[in-house]
Request: fold
Amino acid sequence: MSVSYEWIVEVIDDHGDIDDVRHHDSAIDMLADVASEHASGRTVNYGIVRDAFSGMGIGCRSWAYVKDGKLPSMTVDAGEIEIASVPKRLIKELEVAKQS
Reply:
């Protein structure tokens, strides 16, 4: 099984639904996108998406959204069940990006 991570920005509409989803290769790009959306007055969720692949494609997708400027220690699935630890390298990448 292989695992991949992407930085993600979800734009939220006036009804609380996800209106748009954008994936980024770096935390810096993600934060620039978030700043642009905030400047436009839009609400966003942002963080990482984790995809675990089996022989048949994506076997498990989970997310970790930034809260209070930090990534949580675990990703959760759509049922809010903890799936996997967030890699320390991604936590560090976000911290460095926030200082840029």
User: Anything to note?
Assistant: Strands lie at 2-12, 18-24, 43-54, 57-65, 74-76, 82-85.
